[in-house]
Design brief:
Radius of gyration of chain B: 19 Å
Oligomer: heterodimer
CATH architecture of chain A: Alpha-Beta Barrel
Strand order of the largest sheet of chain A: 5-4-3-2-1-9-8-7-6
Largest sheet of chain B: 6 strands, mixed
Order of helices and strands of chain A: HEHEHHEHHEHEEHEHEHEHH
CATH class of chain A: Alpha Beta
CATH topology of chain A: TIM Barrel
Strand content of chain A: 5-15%
CATH superfamily of chain A: Aldolase class I
Distance between the termini of chain B: 51 Å
Shape of chain B: globular
Number of strands of chain A: 9
Chain lengths: 265, 399
């Protein structure tokens, strides 16, 4: 069983939901990446999404754009992200890692090579934001034999046909985008999200995570009642932005702990 | 004549093109595709488009024989397709009229656009005013500084110009920001992309609306000289004016098609915007195409004296035409383009856009090596009024 499936299974048996933090690898520095990841786990994270910095993050709001720019200024590449994952694996063999990023760095590395290094580095899943299922098929074929999951987005505007198509291809979990817009935007309509997740659950074979715009423990708590996982991204990146570098792991850990407590209450 | 039927239904031009966007945009793009396919062959839509192009844009644009220029070069005859004479001063308006008409039929009262030099922004603001639509134009803050006059023109036309501060603060970042607006406001907003790039159906749709340029040439050239030209030349940034004039000629295999990219300070210096001449394939802005990028797949900042060519990608159809050798692509650097700019001003009394000056420069380079009965047709895609400050600055003057 993959680390992702094992994690969801274990949580489910405890009646708990997964807390999934996201941050851009290399922000504020590459050296702080692995310590921050360990602090996240300590704070209550069950799975970590590692953002691969890209020069043109079209689906992201200003907070994650800035964080991606800081990481690029530090010279962080896809290879560095994979290397950070491998470093983390040396001391944590349990927590699943998912790479989230844009297509072009993967295209340049080559899909086969990317899949190989993912598996070698202990990466458990890959979410390429600008690969819709049609364009992702080839990468999925490289990832599957190496037991790396292909994770996909669904959005409030996805049709039923789309939900079925993505449910057929998705492994690991499905990431439901809880609002119309970019990462970190406006207010979430929890009732609407609950209804949409109901639609997805009717066809999906994997757990459903929900994210985009989850800013506090109370919202995370409400959403964890309808979804299997809650993804927190922009809020964490804001915390990183506001912290002195040396304090990043501790402050991010403490922030996640607030979400954890709210979700488990 | 060979049949050419690109793209395929998924928007692929061979390995290029496609729909590389986040799931959050898929519904909007599917809606656009469905509506465009419904209207593109609709007789009422086509009739209105033709009427608007004739009475609002001022089409057909003439073809002009640049006799003095040709004589001075002592070789091939240079003809200019005068897109600079269109309303708003460039080919861009052909496309914005078409897309705004589609937006109205789709019931979207708000249009957004990205712009680099400001020409597409002005053309969008113009049609938005014409149809009474709300208009928001995203423009890199660096470009806003370089193109103050066009910013003011857009404001006069009632548009809101939003400065983009992310990334390199230029055209590509404006496009990113417009996409973010679209994904957030898709219920009431139509995104008018200004070039033959972006996710399917944009490369096809923008090409189709601009192909009036080449279609006119197909009848104008035989009327003027009794035959089609030997070479058709056009500048290529994103590549919309080039696709507009190339597309109707693709099946005419005896007509050479030549795209002219921005060589900037020279390809060897790395400061250029020549994606086809010096880039490699990758994925950006919703399609696979040639890009200027580093070994890690990050997009690199480009340089050109002309803001309209200053873009790190290129329309996917150009990538396909390059790989299949149906079109040739060359680069002209800043100095050569400026020289062509001044020459055309002095010899023909035509002030070309710096973008179009690249195509003129390539024609000037080739003409002396060719026989006197060879015909070069250059798409003079825009007029140069907007470039006064840039050119003056290069000559050490301030206006």
């Amino acid at each position: 069983m993959s680390r992702i499936s094992a994690t969801f299974k274990q949580l489910s048996s405890q009646g708990r939901k997964a807390l999934i933090p996201f941050f851009s690898v290399g922000d504020p520095t590459l050296a702080l990446c692995v310590p921050t990841m360990h602090a996240m786990v300590k704070g209550g994270a069950n799975l970590i999404e590692l953002g691969v910095p890209f020069s043109d993050p079209m689906a992201d709001g200003p907070t994650i754009q800035r964080s991606s720019e800081r990481a690029l200024k530090n010279g962080v590449s896809l290879r560095d992200v994979l290397h950070a994952a491998a470093e983390f694996r040396k001391t944590d063999d349990q927590t699943p890692l998912v790479l989230m990023g844009y297509a072009n760095p993967v295209e340049q590395m080559g899909r086969a090579e990317f899949a190989r290094v993912c598996a070698e580095s202990g990466v458990d899943g890959v979410l390429i934001v600008d690969y819709p299922p049609d364009e992702a098929r080839d990468l999925a074929l490289h990832l599957a034999p190496r037991h790396v999951d292909s994770i996909f987005l669904l959005s409030p505007t996805s049709t039923d046909a789309r939900m079925r198509e993505i449910s057929e291809m998705a492994t690991g979990y499905i990431y439901y985008v809880s609002l119309r817009g970019v990462t970190g935007a406006g207010n979430i309509d929890v009732k609407d999200v609950a209804q949409q997740i109901g639609r997805i659950k009717a066809v999906a074979k994997v757990p459903i995570g929900v994210g985009f715009g989850i800013r506090d423990g109370a919202t995370a708590r409400l959403l964890s009642e309808v979804a299997d996982a809650v993804v927190v991204g922009s809020r964490i990146v804001e915390e990183i932005e506001a912290s002195a570098a040396a304090e990043v792991p501790a402050r991010v850990g403490a922030l996640l702990n607030q979400f954890r407590i709210a979700m488990d209450a | 004549m060979k049949i050419y039927d690109m793209p395929d239904p998924q928007g692929h031009f061979g390995p290029y093109g496609g729909t590389f966007v986040s799931e959050t945009l898929i519904a909007a793009i599917d809606e656009l595709k469905t509506q465009y396919l419904r209207y593109r062959d609709d007789p009422e839509f086509k009739a209105e488009f033709a009427y608007e192009l004739k009475h609002y844009v001022g089409r057909p644009s003439p073809i002009y024989h640049a006799k003095r220029l040709s004589e001075s070069l002592g070789g091939a005859q240079i003809y200019l397709k005068r897109e600079d004479l269109n309303h708003t001063g460039a080919h861009k308006v052909n496309n914005t009229v078409g897309q705004a008409m589609l937006a109205r039929r789709m019931g979207k009262p708000r249009v957004i656009a990205e712009t680099g030099a400001g020409q597409h922004g002005v053309a969008t603001a113009t049609v938005a005013a014409r149809y009474g639509m709300e208009c928001v134009v995203y423009m890199g803050s660096e470009d806003i500084k370089r193109q103050a006059q066009n910013v003011y023109r857009m404001k006069l036309l009632g548009a809101t110009v939003v400065p983009v501060e992310s990334g390199s603060k230029t055209l590509k970042d404006a496009l990113n920001e417009a996409m973010r607006d679209w994904v957030t406001n898709v219920h009431n907003t139509f995104y008018i992309i200004g070039t033959v790039a972006g996710p399917h159906p944009y490369p096809m749709m923008v090409r189709d609306f601009n192909s009036v340029v080449g279609t006119e040439c197909l009848t104008q050239m035989p009327e003027m000289v009794g035959r089609q030209p030997d070479v058709v030349l056009a500048c290529v940034g994103g590549g919309s004016n080039a696709m507009g004039i190339f597309y109707p000629y693709i099946g005419h295999s005896d007509v050479r098609l030549m795209g002219v990219e921005a060589g900037g300070e020279g390809i060897a210096t790395g400061h250029h915007a020549a994606s086809l001449s010096a880039g490699s394939p990758g994925v950006l802005h919703g399609n696979r195409t040639y890009l200027i990028q580093d070994a890690n797949g990050q997009i690199i900042e480009t340089h050109s004296i002309s803001a309209g060519l200053d873009y790190p990608g290129v329309g996917p159809e150009h990538a396909w035409l390059k790989d299949t050798h149906r079109a040739e692509y060359v680069a002209i650097n800043d100095d050569e383009a400026l020289h062509a700019f001044h020459t055309l001003c002095r010899m023909e009394g035509i002030i070309p856009a710096l973008e179009s000056s690249h195509a003129v420069a390539q024609a000037m380079k080739m003409a002396p090596t060719m026989s006197g009965d060879t015909i070069l047709l250059v798409n003079l895609s825009g007029r140069g009024d907007k470039d006064m400050a840039t050119v003056a600055e290069r000559s050490g003057l301030t206006l």
